[in-house]
Amino acid sequence: MLDDTASAADILAVLVELGDPVRAAGARRFFKTGPGEYAEGDEFVGIRVPELRKLARRLRGLPGDVLAELVSNPLHEARQLALLTLGVNFAARGSDRAHWVNVYRDAVRSGHVDNWDLVDCSAEPILGAFLVDADDYSELLDWASSDDLWERRVGIIGAFAFIRAGRSDAILAVAPSVIDDRRDLIQKAFGWMLRETGKRVDRAVLTDFLDAQAARMGRTALSYAAEHLTSDERSRYRAMR
Predict the structure, then answer these.
(1) What's the pTM?
(2) What are the helix (H) ranges across the chain?
(3) Three-class SS of residue 93?
(4) Burial class (CB within 10 angstroms; exposed 0-12, middle 13-18, buried 19+) of 117
(5) Which residues pair with 43 in a beta bridge?
(6) How many degrees, rounded to 5, is the angle at CA 224 between CA 50 and CA 124?
(7) What SS3 class is residue 109?
(8) pLDDT for 96-113, tens place per residue?
């Protein structure tokens, strides 16, 4: 049974054993791994996320060097397991949170957090949570200003930790850096965070933002942001574009 003494090779062997070729083929289509697509060449063995989360809990305490080896592996599930385990380590009582967030930053900068699901399972519970504790979202602005698709998404999704804490300041500060980006995975992330701001923080913050910025927003971001508004409100904001 795997535990925090396992080597990267041991863990990779278990992942291959758990894989399902049919699920792997579906994942390659779903995550756009074909020529010219955003995850071209990404490799899957076909493991469900709940199974990876269960493994991550068993691997709590796995050292940073093993996590770094896993997160740089070509196998998508190895990178996701490393990020999930990193999140478990980060959240553990008494953990060296600054150390674990630096491991995460290195993984992002090295280009290993390179699909939307990898960003979404890690940016908020690791980087975002660390910055909420520090009461400083300025780092998110740096990530959101990057031209790199995945770094920019980290800056957006990292703001979710502030939204969960009842704060809209981080996403509103990030907004000017991302509002004109028409890439689909940025549009969806931005609109999602605005929608969550309206649900979790204050509906008026969302509608005030849309009153001022709907005309400038991309169609996808606006659709996501306004999803839980009334049909009349959605129509009004669409008509502003």
Answers:
(1) 0.96
(2) 8-18, 21-30, 49-58, 64-71, 76-91, 97-109, 116-120, 129-134, 138-144, 149-157, 160-164, 169-178, 184-200, 203-213, 219-225, 231-239
(3) coil
(4) middle
(5) 75
(6) 45
(7) helix
(8) 999 999 999 999 999 999
